[in-house]
Amino acid sequence: MKVLSNRLIFIYLGSALVTFISFLVIRIFIQEPSQGYSIYEKQLVWTLLIIAIVAALLGYYKAPKRLSLLRKYVFLGWACGLAANYYSVKNHYGYFTGNTLSNLFDLLMYTTLAIAIVVIISTVLDHDLTQLLKMYARLLSPVSLRPPGLIINFKDMLFNTIQNKENQDINELRDKILDQLKSQTVPIMVFLDDIDRLDNKEIQTVFKLVRMIADFPNVTYVIALDEQVISSSLAQLYSKDYAKEVGRAYLEKFIQVPIYLPRVDKSLLNELCWDKLGEILQFYSTSIDRELFVLMTEGLVSTPRNVKRFLNLVNIFLPLVHKDVYTLDFLFLLFIKVEKPTLFEEIFRHSDFFLSGIKGNENIAKEITDKHVEYSRMLELMFPAIVSDQSKNPRWSIDKRICTLDHFWTYFMYSLPDGKVSQAQVDTLFNSLLNEGHTFHELYTGIQRTSSVKELNQKLSWDCFRRTAKEKRLLLDVLLTRYDDLYPLWESGDPSLSLSSLIMDVSRLLWKEAPDLLLQSGLFRPRRIMTSTITFYNIFGNDSTVKSLTKELVSNVFSYDLLSRHDLEDAQQFFNVWYQLSTDEDKKSGVEPWIKDLEFNQYIKYFWMEKLDPREDELLLSFYCKVIHLISINVLVPEIERIGFRNVNQFINLSPEQKIPYIFTYAHQNSYKHARSMVTKVINQMLHEQQVVSLKNHIMVNLEILLQHGEINKLADLANLVEEYHTVQAEITEQNVEQQEAYEEVLGQLRENE
């Protein structure tokens, strides 16, 4: 109590002195409030206050040591009085109300409050104890426990010892500290957190230090740690075979009162995770299936800290890629990164398995599924290929799923790989369409330079699935215009076929949603009639309305001049559409002028399809029959003799216009033999199995054309074989009917007997 009384005396002396001087200055040099205050008077008061603050600080830190008690408390009191005066001036300077006695009472109240706070602090931390602890720390500072062992800095030890001659005996100093601590009424708490985040050597060092030099009375250590991590670390120090049980036993002796955190209800963790996640998703205007997310993560959320870490990752990385990934897949991957980092690394390292499936990766599949059973449902949802050999769903690419090679790396890079087109760029292109497409071509060309035509057109095709019919119609028109502008520059059609494919994809979607818009589009303008017809028929050829419309378009414009103005491959496709839709009479009248006015090499090229392989006998037969169906064999034989025969390997690498006449002569040479072979094979199969076997419809059509229009001297054997084919079919059919009737008769008798 005596010490406390002395402190109060000095604190009040200092406070009163500052209060009196400051208030006197204000009253002497400052006019009455009613007269107002000039800017210079206000600056004077602020200057005096600043000088008082600096004086208090200098007095506290620079006073002679012999005045240490006065320095400690008088100047501290001065500072408290200054603080109180400052508060009063701040509230009343320029705004004084009431009489002087009232203002002095306010100052005294503020000063007393500040002093009370200081008294409480000075009571908790005893001055003498603080000084002793500082001396003890200086004497111990040259000694440190760091790997690989005890380290002593002799220079620091010598310096600190010389500076502390009065306290050279560390044991004596320690005894003084012990006495002071025993007399303390307020216990000292030392908190050590995150020890489990240190490396093994550092963890061991901390526990050694606490044990060796920090066993003071009235001092309690509160240590927050992961028991498993610390036990493993201590086991490496105290166990030869690194047994965790030894480390745990040591920890149990060291920790006197273990307090284990209670387990958190998993359902509450899931609810917490979703509530916060929902706010983030709403902010970025995206959504996922809540029930599916909760179902997949149920029981897998381990701690509130991991929930916070997961949400932090989502907050950081989702804004970077939310338009270029499938949100649910991305959230699952971040969840795995937080809760199961080893699985995250395995997904990245074994991308072939997760993208391609089990086939060829059986060992990896077993290893991963055995180690991460609890994540099997989530992995199956993210990577369907690991549980099924089903062909890849085109919708996966459209939705930007992680299970597609086109998008897999984006999930790990948190940005698009080089050369890829972002969703933001695609959105910019569609937005330009609303401006009547004036900037579309410039934007398209610019994006194409940084990626590729194929990549850009693929992204546009995928994005069309979520666009309105109006946007598709606008896109189709600008694509067709671009196709028209570029077509004359191509030596052989669309180099990558990507623009043609994109036009077909957009047309297909638009026809399903709004057929009228497709018909009103620029698809069927005369300038692009060939390309449009091919596109239209290839997509919707099974629709009767489409067939009728396409037939009318084709019949109105079909001519050799039209074919010759276009790329050979496009012309061949257009000719094939015309051939399928026209009647026999229209076909013959269409090619009749060719026979009269053109060379054989000029028109025969349109009967073939460039993508076909001339080594396929069935394709050769169809090609040959298509030609002889429209052009008399008597006209063709002289041309065949003029061209001559070649082995397929001798012309396969020639240019299209050069090799197609050879393909026809090769077909003439082999088609009859191939037809006989097919019919013979089916006859033998029927005789052997005693079952009816039918040739495909298109083969029967070709056989009929061959028998009607083929070279007569090669048809005798074929005609006999076709007749035998029908005869065997009829006999087996009749035999099967008789057997069926006999069976039913026997079955009926058995039923009667029963």
TrEMBL record:
It comes from Paenibacillus baimaensis. Keywords: Membrane, Transmembrane, Transmembrane helix. It comes from the Bacteria. Residues 146-320 form the KAP NTPase domain. The chain crosses the membrane at residues 9-30, 45-63, 107-125. This is KAP family NTPase.
